[in-house]
Amino acid sequence: MPQTAFNEITTVDELVALLGEPGQRARDKSRPALLEIDREWLAASPFCMMATASADGACDASPKGDPAGQLVHVIDDRTIALAERPGNRRADGYRNILQNPHVGLNFLIPGRGDTLRINGRARLVSDAPFFDEMQVKGHRPLLAVVVDIDDVFFHCAKAFLRSAIWKPETWDPEARVPRRALIAREVEPNGMTVEQLDDYYTPENYAKGLYA
Fold this sequence. Notes:
By secondary structure, this protein is an alpha+beta fold. It has helices spanning about 10-20, 25-30, 35-45, 90-100, 160-165, 180-185, 195-200, 205, and strands at about 45-55, 60-65, 70-75, 80-85, 100-110, 115-125, 145-155.
């Protein structure tokens, strides 16, 4: 389809005319510091998405996961820290933070449709006393993202309800796309056979590198 056929929105007025203004509760729910319920949510969350952008606007959204209670360390009501564990070393989000400190975080609890969102300014820390409290299986974080909170608020469940993401009866992870080994062979070739890739990606083998 030619893009000339798109009816593009280019101004805030056009956007508001289409979507309308937010209600008072949605407009005013953002707050600058954590409440006790926010702390409880962070302690129960094993997963979040971290969005960043470079100085020239190149964006990244990276998943972060750890056992609940180990993903986030609350330093105080205006400051949290997220642990970094061994990964593929691309560090796209961290490279962005070094250029532009603004981050957006969305914390999930499995089975819950609502999420906790935190926006703020981040810095990278290679060591701190609280690293000892973020150990998993005897391993301290490689680094931590310390976030100074600008605003925090709960987000409604509509996206999760529409997607039915938490309903097991909708789960069929290999029904429409190939398994991970076949994807890796097609788009990330490294000389390994499919059999070798299948062995590498078995949960018991892949899990060996989660924290070591």
